[in-house]
Design goal:
The protein has 5 helices and no strands. By secondary structure, it is an all-alpha fold. Helix 2 packs antiparallel against helix 3, helix 3 runs antiparallel to helix 4 and helix 4 packs antiparallel against helix 5. It is flat, with a radius of gyration of 21 Å. The two termini are about 15 Å apart.
Length: about 160
C-alpha cells in the first residue's frame, strides 16, 4: 500500500492563507460594519423626519439602505464561512460594486441631464463611465483569480502526489 503525502503544496497553501487571513477577515468586518451602520443611520434619519419626504428622496433613501444592507450581507456571508471560498467572495463583491456603480452612474447622469448644463451632464457621464469601467475591471480580475484557484484545486485533486 502506498503512503499518501498529506502536505499541502506551497502554492495552494499561500493562496488559501491569503483567502483566510486575519487581514482579509478584518477587511470584511469593516465592510459589514460600514454597510450596516450606513443603512441604520439613513433609516434613523428617514424615520425621524418631522414631515413626509418627497417620493424621490424616499426612493433614494430606500436605495441607499438597500446598498448598505447588501454590503453587510456580503460581509456576513463571507465571515460565516469556515472553509476556503476560492475567491467567490471577491466575485460576489465585485458584482455588487458593478451593479451599484452602474445604477448610481446612470441615475446621476439622468439627473444631470434633467437639471444641469451640457457640460455638467458630460462630466457626470464621463465620471460614471470611468467608475463603471473600474468596477468591470475589478470583476474581471476577481473572476480570473477564482478560475485560477479552482484550476489549481482541481489539478491538485487529480494529482495528489
Amino acid at each position: 500500500m502506498s503512503e499518501r503525502n498529506h502536505e499541502v503544496p506551497v502554492e495552494l497553501e499561500r493562496a488559501l492563507a491569503a483567502e483566510a487571513s486575519l487581514r482579509s477577515r478584518m477587511r470584511y468586518a469593516a465592510v459589514g460594519l460600514s454597510g450596516g451602520c450606513g443603512a441604520a443611520l439613513i433609516a434613523v434619519l428617514w424615520a425621524t423626519e418631522p414631515q413626509p419626504l418627497p417620493g424621490r428622496t424616499q426612493a433614494a433613501f430606500a436605495t441607499l439602505i438597500a446598498v448598505g444592507l447588501a454590503w453587510a450581507g456580503v460581509a456576513g456571508w463571507v465571515l460565516s464561512r469556515r472553509r476556503p471560498l476560492f475567491a467567490r467572495d471577491r466575485v460576489l463583491a465585485a458584482r455588487l460594486a458593478l451593479a451599484v456603480t452602474t445604477v448610481t452612474g446612470t441615475a446621476a447622469t439622468v439627473l444631470a441631464a434633467v437639471r444641469g448644463t451640457t457640460a455638467v451632464t458630460l462630466a457626470t457621464a464621463l465620471l460614471g463611465a470611468v467608475l463603471i469601467a473600474v468596477a468591470a475591471i475589478v470583476l474581471a480580475r476577481a473572476s480570473s483569480r477564482r478560475r485560477e484557484l479552482l484550476a489549481l484545486r482541481d489539478a491538485l485533486r487529480r494529482d495528489p502526489s
